[in-house]
Design goal:
Blueprint (H helix, E strand, L loop, with lengths): L1 H29 L28 H5 L4 H8 L39 H4 L7 H9 L1 H4 L13 H13 L20 H5 L34
Helix pairs in contact: 3-7, 5-7
Length: 224
């Protein structure tokens, strides 16, 4: 009886030793460190405490430091549909030689512009060309242009500088607007340059009225 008990106890002890050894070996293989940052990032969701992106300045601010050479590199992505060579043929999109200052959807060697762009009217300038490059579909809803747009304002300014250089009469680059006291430009804070338009702020009187303190005062409190 004692031999049988000892045998069972021995096997139990052996099994315990094997289990303990197996757990030690397994922990060595499958050990993992606690991640420094818990959870999983979700694309498009801003983390708490992150600040919003800086407000975009007027396009003139970026044009003041625009680089036509960088603009050409960006424009290379557009060359599947456009060219900016003098006398170049239309492709899927119109030839863009001399586009700045030209009429929007004006005849360019018979290119068939969409009715949506024809309705816009006016001429291409620094501002509306930047808006077009930001999002053609927003600028002219219904346009045939499938380009998604350039979100970086400096990229747009560089492309505009490049296109401006491809012209018989390149236009002078505009100067950056002067910043206002709060760090924004005058155009951003008021919509118009300072000193123009109605309701442009309180005006200081040239001469302030002087009350004669020696004059007798009536019972109502007014000088008599």
């Amino acid at each position: 009886m004692d031999d049988r008990f000892n045998t069972i106890a021995g096997w139990v002890l052996f099994a315990g030793i094997v289990a303990l050894g197996s757990s030690i070996v397994a922990s060595g293989y499958f050990h993992s460190e606690r991640p420094e940052k818990m959870g999983y990032p979700i694309a498009g969701v801003q983390e708490e405490g992150q600040g919003a992106a800086a407000a975009e300045q007027p396009i003139e601010t970026y044009l003041a430091k625009a680089d036509p050479a960088k603009g050409q590199q960006i424009f290379n992505k557009c060359m599947a549909c456009h060219n900016a060579d003098k006398g170049g043929a239309n492709q899927l999109g119109p030839n863009l030689w001399g586009i700045l200052g030209a009429g929007i959807a004006e005849d360019r060697n018979g290119f068939a512009f969409s009715d949506a762009l024809k309705k816009v009217g006016g001429t291409w300038n620094w501002d509306n060309l930047s808006k077009w490059l930001t999002s053609p579909r927003t600028f002219a809803p219904g346009t045939k242009m499938t380009f998604a747009g350039l979100s970086d304002p400096q990229d747009r300014a560089d492309v505009e500088a490049f296109l401006n250089s491809h012209s018989d009469s390149p236009q002078p680059l505009p100067k950056a607007p002067a910043p206002a006291a709060n760090g924004s430009t005058a155009e951003q804070s008021t919509g118009t340059p300072p000193g123009t338009g109605p309701n442009n702020g309180p005006q200081k009187a040239g001469k302030e009225p002087v009350v004669n303190s020696a004059a007798p005062v009536s019972p109502a409190g007014k000088p008599s």
